[in-house]
Amino acid sequence: xxxxxxxxxxxxxxxxxxxxxxxxxxxxxxxxxxxxxxxxxxxxxxxxxxxxxxxxxxxxxxxxxxxxxxxxxxxxxxxxxxxxxxxxxxxxxxxxxxxxxxxxxxxxxxxxxxxxxxxxxxxxxxxxxxxxxxxxxxxxxxxxxxxxxxxxxxxxxxxxxxxxxxxxxxxxxxxxxxxxxxxxxxxxxxxxxxxxxxxxxxxxxxxxxxxxxxxxxxxxxxxxxxxxxxxxxxxxxxxxxxxxxxxxxxxxxxxxxxxxxxxxxxxxxxxxxxxxxxxxxxxxxxxxxxxxxxxxxxxxxxxxxxxxxxxxxxxxxxxxxxxxxxxxxxxxxxxxxxxx
Length: 340
Fold this sequence. Notes:
By secondary structure, the chain is an alpha+beta fold. 18% of the residues lie in helices and 25% in strands. It is built from eight helices and 15 strands. Strand 4 (121-126) and strand 5 form a beta hairpin. The longest helix is centred in the N-terminal third of the chain and has 14 residues, at 2-15. It is globular, with a radius of gyration of 21 Å. GO terms for molecular function: serine-type endopeptidase activity.
């Protein structure tokens, strides 16, 4: 009995140790909405998860939280034994296979992706036929392009599959609900507000091959010339057919000022859009890649969703890079519709 009391006392001390302390917690609405007014281990786990699913929600804001020295030593311990503390708590944005950038070619005639390369990639299929890509942002939600549902928005007509092969999917799910942005104009001439979220049923259990990407915060910046990767089952050339096996390519963010030049897109790129690719052409997404992810890693190797494949002038054409929905511009909308 004496040993039992000692163990319980030790456990109580661990659970109530101030691993992380919230600064000015009563004035910060993010914490107030979650009722996080304590500083014990339970609060630490809640804060570490964050709204965007990444540890940066707490650790990147020293004005909001104070990290105890023992907590930092705990993180170092996990790093030494080879565990990633960020993925340990959140599981977002991690990849099994780390493909060197030099081996990544354009989707149009590029290289196949291997299982586990891009575990958040999903295929949206209408009546069993691949139509669009999508990105897994939780075990029940996908984010994709609104224009994918321009002609058919009934959930019963759609399913989602996961894995690199369309013919032999790792997992398949039915669609429970489709939420298209309220301001999206359902016509071929408009590209504004090209975003939708899709709710799955049942939920998807995470594995090494299937799990979520990290969502950025609305204030997160992805500067010009950032290397990103776009993936999909789209055509290998303009007006071609979709392929069975997932492909991948590296592209770089092009600033809106450059993308709005007369010889590029002549002023039609809005703040809610971003361009990625190369002005000389050669690498790009194509038809069938719509709705799919544009991602980039942070300094810890966690992958964040930067953009959603939206539109472009043909595929891999000179001075016509791919245009993507800028995720940070719609981060609050995603949170409003999904709670993420």
